[in-house]
Amino acid sequence: MGMHEKFRLDGKVAVVTGGGRGIGRGIALALAECGADVVAVARRQADVDAVAEEIKALGQRGLGISADVMDFTTIPKLLDRVVEEFGQLDIMVNNAGGNLDRKTYLLKDIPIEKFDEQLALNMKTKFWGSQQAAMRMKDGGRIINIISIAAHRPSPGFGVYSAANLGMISMTRTLAVELAPQGITVNCIAPGIIVTDMLKETMHIDDKQAHETFDSVIPMGRTGTPEDCAAAAVFFASPAAEWTTGQFIDVAGGQPT
């Protein structure tokens, strides 16, 4: 196999949670461009249907499934559906996360209910997706957890989110060791500032304001794109990364952590 072929994903089946918009959509389309059939999962059916059509336009099988990862009965059912309809599961991208109410909370003020919600959304759902995917990977596989550089820096207003993301690094490392005998790799991608709908809604700014605020603080001189994160996901999903596991990579334009 030539080096360029090691980045192909022909014959693989991938699931991307939070795959209807932003980083998840970027990853879903990049995996499809490299040859994978891709199932996009998100709460809005219209969003995942649109992504599925884009995947099909790239010549791959695509499917959009509306599901809420916070309903813990959902992931086993949808992964069973994927295996039934596509015949296998090779790549699981646990991307869904963030803050449901688009609000920030100082740790001294956060209600315990919101504390639990943040941990569940940003750590428990990704653990559950990893565990359930591994149970259905019959010939090795790739698990990729999308976290944030908030995992290893002070994050006022996002303290529980930050802690959950750091917890995912630890959990990823342990899962990598436990699943290695099955030929399954487990890695994290930690994006920096990506101007997504979630970022704009949380910070109450528009595209122009986001770039005015953040471009200048990033050493590379710009905020990131979903495609920047997608490139890292393609690497971790590909045969090129078959001996890389238990790692995390910052995709952050040199932003200090």
Beta-strand percentage range? 5-15%
Number of strands: 7
Shape: globular
The CATH C-level name is Alpha Beta
Number of alpha- plus pi-helical segments: 8
Largest sheet, spatial ordering of strands: 3-2-1-4-5-6-7
Task: Name the CATH homologous superfamily.
Answer: NAD(P)-binding Rossmann-like Domain
Detailed description of the structure:
The protein has 257 residues and is α/β, with parallel strands linked by helices. It has a single domain, classed as NAD(P)-binding Rossmann-like Domain (Rossmann fold). The protein is 43% helix and 15% strand. The chain contains eight helices and seven strands, in the order βαβαβαβαβαβαααβ. The protein has helices spanning 22-33, 45-57, 74-86, 112-136, 159-179, 197-203, 207-214, 226-237; strands at 13-17, 37-42, 62-66, 91-94, 141-146, 184-191, 248-251. It has a seven-stranded parallel β-sheet, with helices on both faces. Strand 5 (141-146), helix 5 and strand 6 (184-191) form a beta-alpha-beta unit. Helix 4 (112-136) packs parallel to helix 5. It starts with 12 loop residues before the first strand and ends in a 6-residue tail after the last strand. The mean pLDDT is 95.
